[in-house]
Amino acid sequence: MSTMPTKVVTGKVRLSYAHLFEPFSSFEGQDAKYSTVILIPKSDKATIKKIKQAQKAALEKGKASKFGGSIPKNWKNTLRDGDEEADLEKNPEYEGHYFMTVSNKQRPGIVDRDVQPILDSTEVYSGCYARVSINAFPFSASGNKGVSFGLNHVQKVADGEPFGGITKAEDDFEPLDDLDDEFDDEDSDDLI
User: Fold this and answer.
1) CATH numbers and ranges of domains, the chain
2) Terminal CA-to-CA distance of the chain, rounded, Å?
3) pLDDT digits (tens, 9 = 90+) for 134-191
4) pLDDT band at 4 (very low <50, low <70, confident <90, very high)
5) Which one, 28, 65, 96, 134, has least CB within 10 Å?
6) What is the pLDDT of residues 47-74, one digit of tens each?
7) Using an 8 Å Cβ cutoff, are 14 and 6 in contact?
8) Residues near 58 by Cβ (< 8 Å), separated by ≥ 6?
9) How many other β-carbons are positioned within 10 Å of the β-carbon of residue 68?
10) Is 33 in a helix, a strand, or coil?
11) Can you give the pLDDT at residue 23?
12) Whether the Cβ atoms of residue 115 and residue 5 lie closer than 8 Å to each other
């Protein structure tokens, strides 16, 4: 039995497809889960090393419980190379990163840099930067055997450009003076 840990706290990663405050299901009939894709810079060798060590530990744990006594030769690796396996036209931000979907049926704890709870769902979004606590586990389902990662908790560390062109209302509008509050009839005709 492996004594290596299966839990990993990442370095600074970027969140994509973040569904952290409400569970989400991308497929009909599938259980909704809290989830996000984490983008790990290829330059973050320390996080990548910890993930690979956690995968080895999970493979060892799965040897008896999931894999029938031996580690599969071609096990499914949920850590993927953004330069080779992502649609860079749709998701150009994956370039130069490894990526992995992490999820949990339980809502993750979400905190800020000072480890204070974040309650406002607009504060943690696809495009922000975070550290993520994840846990490797072996799986054997539908003929696939491998290692995936569950989502434990998220610590937001910095804002980033939101993915998908989403903007904040504060960025789209300016405060109005009382005189600017109403449209004239002439101006409204121009809108039609």
Assistant:
1) 7-164 (2.40.50.140)
2) 72
3) 999 999 988 899 999 999 999 999 999 998 766 667 777 788 776 555 555 555 555 5
4) confident
5) 28
6) 999 999 999 999 999 998 999 899 999 9
7) no
8) 6, 136, 137, 138, 147
9) 11
10) strand
11) 93
12) no
DSSP output for 75-124: PEE--EEHHHHS-TTT-GGGTTEEEEEEEESSPPEEE-TTSPBP--GGGS
Structure tokens at 117: 């709870």
Residue of 2 and 124 predicted with greater confidence: 124
Long-range contacts of 65-69 (CB under 8 A, 24+ apart): 65/138, 66/138, 66/139, 66/140, 66/145, 67/138, 67/140, 67/145
Q: Are 150 and 135 in contact (CB under 8 A)?
A: yes
Nearest Cα to Cα of residue 136 among 184, 66, 73, 44: 66
The answer to whether 136 and 58 have CB atoms below 8 angstroms apart is yes
pTM equals 0.82
- Structure letter (DSSP) for residue 160: -
Nearest residue to 42 via CA among 91, 16, 80 = 80
CA angle 127/18/159 to nearest 5° reads 30
Instruction: Please give the distance of CA 43 from its chain centroid, rounded to a whole number.
Output: 18
Q: Which two tokens stand for residue 23?
A: 């569970």
